[in-house]
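Hi team,

As requested, here is the filled-out complex form for the phosphoenolpyruvate run. I kept the field names the same as last time so the parser does not choke. Let me know if anything looks off before we queue the next batch.

— J.
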Amino acid sequence: MRPLIAGNWKMNGLSADAPEIEALISAFDGAMPEKIDVLICPPATLLGGLAAAYEDEGVQFGGQDCHSAPSGAHTGEVSAEMLADAGAAFVIVGHSERRSDNGETDAIVRAKAEAALRAGLAPIICVGETEAERDAGRAEAVVAGQLEGSLPRTDGDEIVIAYEPVWAIGTGRTPTLDDIADMHAAIRKIVGDRRRILYGGSVKPGNAAEILRLDDVDGALVGGASLKAADFAAIIRAL
Ligand code: PEP
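And here is what came back:
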């Protein structure tokens, strides 16, 4: 399985931050590792410019969300087709911040993932339990339910799953390595051998190597640590 390290810039980044990509490429002396997919998901405002400037440099670009319709009267929304047109190869769907801030249900996430496939993008479908659900011993059941409701009904090896425990996002806390391995093994049983499963939630240069060497962890979805080229480069190197 070809590993994927994806950076989610969230609502961060102005045009003045484009040099972070330059610095990332420079950290590898201008030659990004060939055996790893390196992806940056910047805000939609920067996507087209960054993709045009850097897509030939071994860095891929993606969106952070998309609408399920290809076009239409949906003020403020961006379709998967628009992201593809701007140079995206991937799109994150169902991030826990969108599930909580925007009330996105599994059915909405599935429609967005299906829209991504329709537009030729690889959807990165985020799933993960809350702390209360983990404490109640329901983490695997919750994630299985989210997958059941969010996975597109069509096949697609390009579909990527990101296991992101809600309580680990942006908190500096992570599950134990055993808990990550157990969850990834459970997800593997559901999604099969040909889809990548990323871990996300407070991945940093200091913990990346131990997480990325676990069975069934095919890469990482990185939030905060993707904003600084030096940290993101260290995570790629750990892989
Ligand atoms: C994320 O938002 O997808 C994420 C994993 O964030 P962080 O790495 O900052 O926990």
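Two things worth flagging: The pocket of phosphoenolpyruvate is lined by residues 8, 164, 169-170, 200-203, 221-225 (CB under 6 Å). The mean pLDDT is 97.

Thanks,
J.
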